[in-house]
Every structure is written in C-alpha cells, then in structure tokens.
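Page 42, continued from yesterday. The earlier attempt failed because a stray header line got pasted into the input along with the sequence. Redoing it now with the clean sequence only.
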Amino acid sequence: MLKADLLPIVEARQGTKSRISRREAARILLRGAVLGAAMPWVTRAHPIWRHFEDEHLMHRAESGAAGSKMHFLNAEQYALLTALAEAIVPGSTRASVANFVDLLLSADKEKNQKEFVSSLTAIEGEGMKKYGKGFPALSSVQKNGLLTAVSTAPKDGDAGLREAFENLKEWVSGAYYSSEMGMRELGWTPDRVFAEFPGCSHAEGHG
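This time it went through. Structure tokens are written below.
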C-alpha cells in the first residue's frame, strides 16, 4: 500500500472544493509518474498512465459510464478482477476499481487488452492449481497466500506469475489512487491540497 506522505501537501486556500474528481486525481498522479516522484508502484511505461492523459475518457469515467455496464471484460473476468483488486488494495470495491479498469481497457490497444486477460488467467490458473478453485472462491488467507507467492516468484519464471501480478497491481493501484478514496488515503482532504511537483506547474504540459 502507498504511504500518505508520498505526495506533498500544503494548506488549501479558501474556496477549495469539498470533493476531488477522478480527472483531477488522475492529473495529480500523472504529474508524479512523469517526474518520477517517490511512488515505487509506478512504471511510467504502463498503459494506465496514457489513459489518464485522455480527457474524453476521464470525462466518461466521471459521467458514470464506468459503472453503467461492462465494456470489455466478460462477467467471469469482471468477477475475478473485482476479487483480485480487493485483495491487492483493500477498498477497491468501494472505489469502483473494476468498473474503472474495465472502461480503460475498452479504449486500450489489443496488445494491452490481451496482456491484461493473460495476467488474469495466470493468477486464476495458479489458484486452481494450488487450491482447486477460482480466486473469488478462495478464503482471505488463501488469497493472501497466493498473492504473496506470485508477487515473490522469480522474474521471468515459467508461468510469468510475477509479471502477471505486477501488471494487475499497477492497473488496480492506479485506478484506486485516482479515486477520491485513494486521494484521501494519500493525504488529500477538502481543506488541504497537494503541492505542485517540481517543474510541473501545469498538468497540460505532459499530454
């Protein structure tokens, strides 16, 4: 989990809004990713960051499009993602992580879509191999044990389990921390705002 002191904050001026939108949160995270701030879970090459630059897509997410229906994943994949996200970052279900990731995937390249589904399949397959049932049906102890095992598996292992986990983790983490829940966990409140990252006065400069 990220620590709340990873993003600098300053006291807000009068008139600060009481909520933060997905678009605003995405811009804050994008500034951190671009400038290599102290956010160890960020890989700038990961496809989620390109989506954060897409104003039209962020508008769709804010308008409720993310939660209206499934856009790319099928029902089984969606249920798997929901369970994985909650196990990777508790609170992901409340933050609508699966909905948001599904919307982003629908606008992504076929290569990234296939890699995402392959990552889901790899983790699910390992759960079936180890416990004889799918990830959503595992107990909390089994889920934690499985994710601990795959997150520490050798890089470039036979099943690519660690790479699969890291791919999913960044999708989930990016989606969670670009929500208001995630921003609050990082230290944002209605009476405090994040300071600008050095050399980045305007998010638009990183389009």
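Notes: The chain has one domain: 4-206.
Reminder to self: strip header lines before submitting.
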